[in-house]
What we know:
Layout: E1 2-8, E2 17-23, E3 31-41, H1 43-50, E4 66-74, E5 86-90, E6 99-103, E7 107-109, H2 116-136, E8 144-147, H3 153-164, E9 168-173, H4 176-183, E10 189-192, H5 198-205, E11 211-216, E12 230-238, H6 252-256, E13 261-263, H7 274-289, E14 297-302, H8 306-314, E15 321-325
Parallel strand pairs: 8-9, 8-11, 9-10, 11-12, 12-13, 14-15
Antiparallel strand pairs: 1-2, 3-4, 3-6, 3-15, 4-5, 5-7
Helix pairs in contact: 2-3, 2-7
The structure holds NADP nicotinamide-adenine-dinucleotide phosphate.
Amino acid sequence: xxxxxxxxxxxxxxxxxxxxxxxxxxxxxxxxxxxxxxxxxxxxxxxxxxxxxxxxxxxxxxxxxxxxxxxxxxxxxxxxxxxxxxxxxxxxxxxxxxxxxxxxxxxxxxxxxxxxxxxxxxxxxxxxxxxxxxxxxxxxxxxxxxxxxxxxxxxxxxxxxxxxxxxxxxxxxxxxxxxxxxxxxxxxxxxxxxxxxxxxxxxxxxxxxxxxxxxxxxxxxxxxxxxxxxxxxxxxxxxxxxxxxxxxxxxxxxxxxxxxxxxxxxxxxxxxxxxxxxxxxxxxxxxxxxxxxxxxxxxxxxxxxxxxxxxxxxxxxxxxxxxxxx
Length: 326
Ligand SMILES: NC(=O)c1ccc[n+]([C@@H]2O[C@H](COP(=O)([O-])OP(=O)(O)OC[C@H]3O[C@@H](n4cnc5c(N)ncnc54)[C@H](OP(=O)(O)O)[C@@H]3O)[C@@H](O)[C@H]2O)c1
C-alpha cells in the first residue's frame, strides 16, 4: 500500500524534512500493519535527523520513537493483537508516517480510556520515567531527588511519579514559566538554573545533605555540577544530552564527591522483550488511569509540520510532550 512519511535524505537541520509518499509491504507473520492516529516527538529524534546518532537502517531516515493508532492487519503468527485493536508502541525509529509495518512484540494494546494523543505523548517519556524511578534507582518515600529539565516531556511525568512514590522532588527549569508548570506537576522545589546556581540551591534545600539521586538529561551544561548535588554514595543517572555530549567524563569526580555511582541508561535496555515492555506499560497505564499522572501536551502539529516542532524542541521552547497528528 501507499502511505506518507516525513523523511530526511541527508542528516541536517530541522528544515531537512520532506513529506513524501512511501510504499509499504504487507506485514510478515510476526508483524502488524498499523494506522497511526498520533505520533510523539522526542529529543532523540533530533539526533537521528541531525546525524549526531548514526543512521544504520535503510534510507531515507524516518525518525520517531512512539505512536498510537489501530491495527489494520496482523501477521499470521501474531496472537496478542488483531485488526481493529487500539494500540501504542515505542521503538527507536520510523514513526513519522501515517501507516507502518512493525514487529508485533513492540506493540501493546491501549486501554479504551486512554486517548490516542495521550498515548503518543507518554510511551517513550512515561516508560522512561518508569524505568528511571523504579529500576535504575529505586526511589522510595523519604528520598530527596533532583530532576533536570523538570518542565520537559520526561521531566513533567517523572516529577509526578516521584512525588507519588513519596519522594521530595527538586527540579531545575530554564524559565520562570517552566518552573511554575513543574510546580503544578509534582515538584516541591524548582530552581531556575539560568538565574540561580543549582548546586547552591540544592544544598540550601537539603540543609547541606545533598540528594540520593540526580536524573540528568541536560548533559554537557550540568556536568560535573550535578555530582556536587549528591549525598555520599549517591547516584548520577545521566540519561540524555540536550545541551551537548559530555566529552570529558572524569572517573575521579566520583571519588572526589563521595564514592558516587554513575550510569548512562537507555530505555530500550529496560524493555528488551515483549514481557518487559508489557509489564512497564501496564504500570504506566495504571498510573494514568488512577489519576496519578497528568499529561501535558504542550505542542501539537501535523506530521507535515514536524520541522517546526524540532526547531522548538532544540531551542528550549517546548514544555511537556510534543505530538504530531496524521
Ligand atoms: N536514555 C533514555 O532512555 C531517554 C529516554 C527519553 C529521553 N531521553 C533524553 O531525555 C531528555 C529529555 O527528552 P524530552 O524529549 O523529554 O525533551 P525535553 O526535556 O522536553 O526537552 C529538552 C529540554 O532540555 C533542556 N535543555 C537544557 N539545555 C538545553 C539546550 N542547550 N538545548 C536544548 N534543550 C536544553 C530544556 O529545558 P530547560 O529550558 O528547562 O532547561 C529543554 O526543554 C533528552 O535529552 C532525551 O534525549 C533519554
